[in-house]
Structures are given as structure tokens and as C-alpha cells.
Amino acid sequence: MKSEVKKIDGTKREINIEVTGETVKNKFEDVFQRISKEAKVAGFRPGHVPRDILEKNFSSLAHEQVLKELVPDLYNQAIEKENLDVIDLPNITDVKLERNSISFKAIVETAPEIKLQNYKGIKLNYRKIAVSADDIKRSLDSLKEARKIENLDDSFAKGLGYPKLAELEKALERQIFLQKENLERQNMEQEIVKVITEGLEFKVPEAMVRRQLEDLVRQAKVDLALRGLPREKIDAEEKKLAQELEPQARNQVKVYLVLAEIAKKENISLDDQMPRKVMEFLLREADWQEAVS
């Protein structure tokens, strides 16, 4: 098999593939043998139709089947041979098939080359999480206002499922602590993302941006529907949503690709859990420092 790769831009590649000889001949032979077993031709039993008649009656079918089986196989061989990290389905063009040769062109989008910065030992300033009396009071005041009551007492607490007001306050303290803890974790992750992507310039594959944008728009439309917006108004907003969400989709893809590059270097599997696993790795490797109040 002959294969040649031409660089179109930062992520797109053109692969020219050509195969001659026994590979193509054998595939035609295999396809005609299978056709012969099931071919129905007047005057002949299945499996006993002469080859020249098979050729005359089923040449187009054989041609189609050979392409269906050979092109994907040869394409996969080519990207493996050329060591291409393809991220989207290929665009196959210029297909030429003869009885002893096949050639075609595949336009593919590949993962960009990313020159990673030092991603270990990232400095993180963390704050000790504490819940103040004012935090609890604000939460109680919100409950009081929502339920339009005058007194915060044991009776009020019982109505919410707590025996005493003190127990309700303890529950609110735990809840507020978890909220602050989650917020602090998000801040740490955002800081890591900022550090590992800062200064990195590379072409983001448009196919990935398009898929991510479609997901964001789909979710935005669901959110609008849950808010009671009519279907026709939601559909009318789709183009505007796509324009507004495109930068977010592009950034999310960029972050994903950087995380994936780290995963490759650290032998972390590229599965659905990859972003979480890489973030956990980066948090473990970070230089944690307590922030001065």
C-alpha cells in the first residue's frame, strides 16, 4: 500500500492512498464467490452460475461491495501507518477502482500539536473553609422571608423537620460548609485550567467545536423549555444561541485537548472519565499553599 500525507492546515490532512495487485484481485474474488452462493439466475442452481454470467449480471454489485469493504480497511491501515491522531470521520473522495487497483483520497481532521507548559507543581492558594454566624443568620433570614414568618424558633424548626432551632442551625452550617467547599474546589480547578492553557496557541479542530456547540445549544434549548418558553420562540432563538455559545464551545474543546495531551504523557486512559482523572492528577501534583487572610 502506498500512502502520502499532505498538510492542509494546523489540523487538516489529505491522505492519498493507492493499492495494486493481489489485495484488490483477492477481494474481488472473495466477493464474487459470496455472490455465487446466493445468486439467482434462471437455468442455474445457486453456487453453479458460470463466472462469465456472474460478471455480466453482478459486476456493479461486486464493485460496490469491494469498495464498501476495502476503503475502510485501507483507510485504517493508512492512518495507523502514518501515525495520525484522527478525531473525526474522513471525507473520502476521488475513488478509483479497477480489477487490480484502487486509489482514493481521504481528508481528515487530526488533533493539533500542543506544546505543553510545565503542568506539575502548579501553585494553588487555598483558604480554610469556615462558616460564620453571619452566614447562618443570612440563611435563616432567607428561610424566614421565603415562608413569610415572624419568629425563628423551635416551632419554625419543627416545621422544617428539626426538633429544635439549634439543630436546624447545625444543618444549615453543614450545608453552607459544603457549598463553600465546592466553590473552593471549582476555584482551584479554574486556576489549574488557566495555568495549563495560558499562552498555548494552536488550531482547535472545527469538527470538535461544531459537536460541542451542538451540545451546548441543545442544552440551552432544554433550559428555555423548562422555563416555559414556547417551542416556536426557542427555535427562533437557535441561531442567536449558537453565536453566543460558540466562544464557550471553542474554549471547552481547547481545555479538553490540553487535558487529553497531559493524559497521553501520564498514561491516563482516554475514556469518558479522562478530564476528571487528569484534574485529580494535577491537583495531587499541585503545590498547595494556604492563603493569608
> Which sheet architecture does the biggest sheet show?
4 strands, antiparallel
Q: Strand order, main sheet: write it out.
A: 1-2-4-3
Oligomeric state of the chains? single chain
Number of helices, counting only DSSP H or I runs of 4 residues or more: 9
Helicity range? 55-70%
Calculate Rg over CA atoms: 31 Å
Count of beta strands: 6
Mean pLDDT: 91
What is the helix/strand order?
EEHHEEEHHHHHHHE
| Number of separate structural domains | 2
How far apart, in Å, are the first and last alpha carbons? 66 Å
As a percent range, the share of strand residues is: 5-15%
SS-derived structural category: alpha+beta
Unreliable residue stretches? none
Q: What spatial form do the alpha-carbon principal axes imply?
A: elongated
